[in-house]
Amino acid sequence: MKFKSLYVAATSQHVGKTTSTLGLVSAFMKKGYSVGYCKPVGQKFLDVKNLRVDKDTILFADLIHFDLIPNIHSPVILGPGATSKFLEHPEKYPNERKIITASNHLSEMNDIVIYEGTGHPGVGSVANLSNAYVAKLLNAGVIMVVEGGIGSTIDKMNMCLALFREQNVPILGVIVNKVIPEKMSKIRHYLKKWMDQHDLPILGLVPYDKSLAYPLMRNVTTSINGIVTHNAEYLDNKVEDILAGSLIDLKELSTFKNLLLVVGARIIDTALKKIDTISKMINIQHSPLSGIVATGQGTPSQESLDYISQYKIPLVRTNLDTYGSVLKISKIEVKINQNTPWKVKRAIELIGENVDLSSILIPE
C-alpha cells in the first residue's frame, strides 16, 4: 500500500463522496486488507449512546461490521452553533488532538484507513479544519471526486485542488462520477488531456445511475411537510418516478413501477379507479404505486381506502397544490443510508466495475 491513509474529498456536496468511499472500502476489503473508516469532521449527526456521531459513520459501521465508537469514527461534529462557539473560545475545542487520537487508534488496528471528507474542500475552515488541512493532519493521500463534465468540471477541480496544493497534500487520483453514459468517451478524452498536463491520474469514470437518485417516501413526506395518514410503516418504499393524477395512461403504468401518485384529494377516487382498471387490463398483479401524495382538500372514498390498505401504500396529505408538491419532490437530494440497501449494493458495484486502484497499490 503506497498510502496507509486515504482521504476522499469532492468538489462540492452531492457529487459522490459517500458512493465512492463505499466502493473503495469494499474494494480494499475484497483484496484482503483490513480497512478502517472515519468521518473526521461531520455536520449531520445522530445521537448514539448520548454521544453525537455523523450519519455516514453509522452506514459504514454496518458495512465493515465495526463497533461504533463516536470519538474514534466521528471525532469532530460541527453541528448548529458549533462554529460561533469555536470562534468565541477556540481554546476550548481540541479538535486537532481528537482527530489525531482517532487516526492513531485506527492506524494501529487496520492495514488502511479511509477518511471521508465533508462538503467541498473549504468546509470546516471556520474552525481551522478545512478538508485540505485535515488531510495534511492525517498524512493522507487524497482521492478527489468530481462530477462528470468537461469545462465546469475542470474549473471546479482546479479551484478545489488549489487548497490541497497549498497544504502540500498529495493527490493520488480523480474519480469522475455521474458521467452520462453516451458522453463517456468524449469526457474521458478531454479530461485526460487536461489532467495529463497536470500529472493527475484518472482512477475511473463512473456512469450516472438513476437508481442512486431514487428518494424514499419518507424523503417525499419531509420535502412537502406532509402528514402520513395511512401505512406509515412503509415509508421506506422507493420512488422511481412521479405520476400526475390527471395524466394517467397505459404507457406509464406498463413501463414503470414504484410510482408516486401526486393527485388532488378531490379526484383521488377517479385516479385510483383508473389505475386499478388499467392494471387489471394489462395483468399487473400488484399496484404500481409506492406511495400517494394527496394535495389540498377532500376525502378519499372507502373504496379508495380499501385499495390503499390492500396494497399497503403510504398516503401522505399536504396543503400544497399538485404543482408545488411535484416541484419540491423533484428537488430532493438523496444520500445513501441504511434505509437504501439497494443503493449501497449498486454504489459498490459501480466503483468496483469502473475504478482502477492499481496506481494506489504497490505492485505485488
Explained architecture:
With 364 residues, this protein is an alpha/beta fold. It has 2 domains: 5-212 and 338-354, Rossmann fold (3-Layer(aba) Sandwich); 215-330, Udp-n-acetylmuramoylalanyl-d-glutamate--2,6- Diaminopimelate Ligase, Chain: A, domain 1 (3-Layer(aba) Sandwich), CATH 3.40.1390.20. It is 40% helix and 20% strand. The protein has 14 helices and 15 strands. Strands 2-7-1-8-9-10 form a 6-stranded parallel beta sheet, with helices on both faces. A 5-stranded mixed beta sheet has the order 11-15-14-13-12, with helices on one face. Strands 3-6 form a two-stranded parallel ribbon. Helix 1 (17-30) packs parallel to helix 2, helix 1 (17-30) packs across helix 14 and helix 6 packs across helix 7 (151-166). The chain is globular. The model has no long low-confidence stretch (mean pLDDT 89).
Topology:
Elements: E1 5-10, H1 17-30, E2 35-38, E3 41-42, E4 45-48, E5 51-54, H2 55-64, H3 70-73, E6 76-77, H4 82-88, H5 95-109, E7 112-116, H6 131-137, E8 141-147, H7 151-166, E9 171-179, H8 184-197, E10 202-207, H9 217-223, E11 227-230, E12 241-244, H10 250-255, E13 259-264, H11 268-281, E14 289-295, H12 302-310, E15 315-318, H13 322-330, H14 341-354
Parallel strand pairs: 1-7, 1-8, 2-7, 3-6, 8-9, 9-10, 12-13, 13-14, 14-15
Antiparallel strand pairs: 4-5, 11-15
Helix pairs in contact: 1-2, 1-14, 6-7
